[in-house]
Write a structure and sequence with these properties.
Blueprint: E1 7-13, E2 25-28, E3 39-43, E4 48-52, E5 69-74, E6 81-85, E7 95-100, E8 103-112, E9 121-131, E10 136-142, E11 151-156, E12 160-165, E13 168-174, E14 184-187, E15 192-196, E16 201-206, H1 207-212, E17 237-240, E18 245-249, E19 260-264, E20 267-271, E21 277-282, E22 287-293, E23 302-307, E24 311-316, E25 319-325, E26 330-336, E27 344-349, E28 353-358, H2 378-397, E29 430-437, E30 440-447, E31 456-459, E32 467-473, H3 480-483, H4 485-488, E33 498-503, E34 508-513, E35 519-524, H5 530-547, E36 555-556, H6 563-606, H7 616-663, H8 667-677, H9 689-702, H10 709-717, H11 731-745, H12 787-801
Pfam families: PHTB1_N, PTHB1_CtH, PTHB1_hp, PTHB1_pf
InterPro entries: PHTB1_N_dom (IPR028073), PTHB1 (IPR026511), PTHB1_CtH_dom (IPR055364), PTHB1_hp_dom (IPR055363), PTHB1_pf_dom (IPR055362)
GO biological process, one term: cilium assembly
Length: about 800
């Protein structure tokens, strides 16, 4: 058990759905038993009044500790506060004062000894009550003016202090400048009433001043001249706190100590009776309640302080002496003496958890048992080692298969896919599955294509569009409804000459089949949206004619390459990258300015001699607004940049597909072209698509697409290269892409095998982020065996080609 945890001595759960607050708990010998042992009085906002006499031998159950409950009464009104004191004239007995929203009742609690096993009986009798004309907030009691017994002072919600001397009403006074009620306490040493006003200052009013201030009998506007000739009510002294107070307390255990404790929202104050501050403690948590109590050291005071982290802290002035963990947030805390134990901490939560606890720890009677030491059995250890080695050998032999020798592919049963957002409809399907069979991990990787119906729905054909692409074939026109049967049901054209696809993002792509020629036109208002439809159309043509047994089917693209349309996507993506860099620079500047202003303000605040701020606070607010506006703009630009990169990938895929159809490239050449134009899966602030693509295209232009073998050898022999970064513009990139397409159109062959024929020592640089060092390569002697590696390192040599 933790040492820093409150030890439960007795606890109870007070009903269900009831609410409690700071004034709902008090302790005292309310039944006047004469033993000096306290009883716990709890009242709830639901009007339920309970009195407990806790005992250590009381067992809790589902219905609560019934044996400790002396009295439970349901009153007609909500209970705001309960107090125990001498509230009846000509009597030294203690009575119970119960404050309701519109009434204050004084009760006597009496017990009758029982003659049977059920125990004593307790009764609650009403002595007198005060019906109030105003809704009340809280109350305090004391010997106001030196009278015998305890008088009551009740504060209303509109700022009136109503004084009652036992069963008679004395007078009422309105507090000046009142807005909201605050905590209220009586100081018997100065015969004053203390409260915290809405001006966030502690105010002290002498009882004598309140009694003679006849002008405060009615609420007056402070801006108007008084209508009567009476005395105005003014506080004896004030102390500015700068924050709202949660509670006030004037300890009465020692007359030598003249202290007033104020619990604020962030600070704890201790003041003398003349408003001078003794000490102040800045709190690093949100307090909920506190209670000063006597200290064994002269001149100091101990405090119990609860906070919203379920902690109960013990301070000696400003020094933390102990910390105990509770199971709830306390809203009220008291100290009580019971027959078995003295100084018990009584705490109450807002939902009715009443706990009597003490701090420290219980003695532990557990002793660690002795462990019988035995010598190791080497034969048994050797047998276990051989068994484990046999398992390892069997697992190594069965690597590549699933459990029981079954192929790994049979272990994959189902696959759950999620359709990506419409802007990401060209999702490259693939998944990895990590399996574990017989303790040996396996990895299965597969690629697949998503159905087109997941990405788009049939629509009506569009007549006018911005971008058009024509695909030629060597076979007669086919019915588009037969090629796309899942869209033929809802198609408006029953002849099969036109078909329209509307993607989930709203873009529409139309496919038109010529009736007289062997051509198919794909058109749309967005250039990049046509890639998926063109790719799907070509694939389905291959499947359709292969089923018909046509072996010489060919498809081609005869029109000019739409490079200008493609370059629009490139420029749009580049401009967003430039904007992102500009936002980053501006944010850095404003952040530096913001921190500089903060340092200057902190220097002014720490200066012992106050100096004017010289509008630094206004400049701080303006800079903060600029930082927030720039951050929001940068976030919006980042989202647009992600969307632009996805669209650029779609446009690049379409350009690669058109180049493949135009020149009839092989799958290996298409793969090289895709790796060149799509070197990155996503953009990063350190490395973007423009510089990576420019380096890859430049490498192709200096290697397999070069005009002479001498340029190939020169490109391979180049060492190092500049660090990739954001270019100034896209003119060079567009020029290189256009030149690459021109050389491919003139018969250039995309291959990496020629690099293996050049026996020169090269050093390559990876397409990594700027600042990372490249890795050196060795002498290339292999040909087809290292084709995979040559391709990867060829991407690194693109840096040299871009210099």
């Amino acid at each position: 058990m933790s040492l820093f945890k409150a030890r439960d001595w007795w606890s109870a759960a007070l009903g269900e759905g009831e609410e409690f607050d700071q004034g709902c708990l008090c302790v005292g010998d309310v039944d006047n038993s004469g033993t000096g042992h306290d009883k716990v009085v709890v009242g709830s906002y639901m009007g339920m009044l309970r009195i407990f006499s806790p005992h250590a031998n009381t067992k809790t159950s589902e219905g609560g500790p019934a044996e400790a409950l002396l009295l439970e009464v349901q009153l007609h009104n909500a209970i705001v506060q309960v107090e125990v004191g001498k509230f009846v004239s000509c009597s030294d007995l203690l009575h119970l004062a119960v404050l309701h929203p519109r009434k204050c009742s004084i009760f006597s609690v009496s017990g009758t000894a029982g003659n049977v096993e059920h125990g004593d009986q307790y009764q609650l009798k009403l002595v007198y009550e005060h019906n109030l004309k105003r809704t009340v907030c809280n109350m305090t009691y004391g010997a106001f003016g030196g009278v015998t017994g305890h008088s009551l002072c009740i504060q209303s919600m509109d700022g009136m202090l109503m004084f009652f001397e036992q069963d008679s009403y004395t007078f009422g006074r309105f507090l000046p400048g009142f807005l909201l009620p605050g905590p209220l306490v009586y100081n018997p040493r100065t015969d004053s009433v203390l409260t915290v006003s809405s001006a966030r200052q502690l105010e002290s009013y002498r009882y004598e001043t309140l009694a003679v201030a006849t002008e405060a009998e009615s609420r007056q506007d402070p801006d108007l001249n008084p209508k009567t000739g009476g005395k105005r009510l003014t506080p004896d002294w004030t102390c500015v706190l700068g924050e709202q107070a949660l509670d006030l307390c004037v300890p009465s255990y020692s007359h030598a100590s003249s202290s007033v404790f104020v619990l604020g929202e962030r600070n704890l104050y201790c003041l003398r009776d003349n408003s001078h501050i003794r000490f102040m403690k800045k709190l690093e948590f949100n307090p909920s309640c506190f209670l000063p109590f006597a200290s064994v050291t002269d001149g100091t005071t101990n405090l119990l302080l609860g906070n919203h982290t379920n902690m109960l802290l013990v301070y000696q002035d400003v020094t933390l002496k102990w910390a105990a963990q509770l199971s709830f947030v306390p809203v009220a805390v008291r100290l009580a003496n019971f027959p078995e134990i003295k100084g018990v901490v009584v705490s109450l939560s807002s939902d009715g958890h009443l706990l009597c606890s003490y701090m420290g720890t219980d003695p532990s009677f557990f002793s660690t048992p002795k462990v019988d030491a035995r010598e190791a059995d080497y034969e048994q250890v050797d047998a276990e080692m051989k068994k484990l080695q046999r398992f390892i050998r069997e697992a190594s032999r069965t690597q590549g298969t699933g459990g029981g020798g079954a192929p790994l592919k049979q272990l994959v049963k189902t696959l759950h896919t999620t359709c990506c957002p419409p802007a990401l409809f060209w999702f490259d399907g693939g998944f990895r599955c990590a399996l574990c069979s017989s303790g040996v991990p396996r990895v299965l990787q597969a690629r697949f294509s998503l159905p087109l119906a997941l990405l788009c729905v049939p629509s009506s054909p569009a007549k006018t569009t911005k971008f058009k692409i024509t695909v030629d074939t060597n076979q007669p026109p086919v019915d588009l409804n037969a090629v796309f049967p899942e869209f033929a049901v809802k198609s408006e054209d029953k002849d099969g000459n036109s078909l329209a696809f509307q993607f989930l993002s709203g873009a529409k792509v139309t496919v038109l089949a010529s009736r007289t020629s062997q051509r198919y036109r794909i058109q749309s208002d967005r250039f990049e949206d046509m890639w998926m439809v063109v790719k799907e159309l070509v694939q389905r043509f291959d499947q359709h004619f292969s089923k018909l047994g046509v072996k010489d089917f060919k498809k081609s693209f005869s029109g000019p390459l739409p490079l200008q349309e493609y370059f629009l996507s490139v420029d749009h993506h580049f401009q967003l990258r430039v904007s992102a860099q500009q936002y980053q620079d501006l944010l850095s500047e404003r952040a530096v300015q913001f921190r500089a202003i903060q340092r200057r303000l902190l220097t002014r605040f720490k200066d012992k001699t106050p100096a004017p701020l010289q509008n630094l606070d206004t400049l701080l607010d303006a800079t903060y607004s600029q930082v927030m506006a720039l951050a929001e703009a940068a976030e919006q630009n980042r989202a647009l940049l992600q969307e632009a990169f996805v669209r650029l990938r779609g446009a690049t895929h379409l350009l690669v597909l058109l180049l493949t159809l135009w020149q009839g490239l092989s799958p290996d050449q298409t793969a090289i072209l895709e790796a060149t134009l799509l070197p990155l899966l996503q953009d990063t602030p350190q490395l973007g698509w423009e510089e990576s693509c420019d380096a890859a295209v430049s490498h192709l232009l200096r290697s397999c697409l070069s005009r002479s073998p001498k340029d190939q050898a020169t490109s391979l022999a180049q060492q190092g290269g500049p660090v990739l970064g954001l270019p100034r513009d896209t003119a060079r990139l567009k020029k290189h892409i256009a030149l690459m397409c021109d050389r491919i159109g003139k018969g250039g062959r995309l291959t990496l095998a020629s690099e293996a024929n050049v026996p020169v020592q090269v050093q390559v640089q990876n397409l990594a982020a700027p600042g990372e060092s490249g890795r050196g390569g060795g002498r290339r002697e292999e040909r087809k065996e290292g084709g995979r590696r040559v391709r990867e390192e060829g991407g690194g040599r693109e840096v040299n080609g871009a210099s």
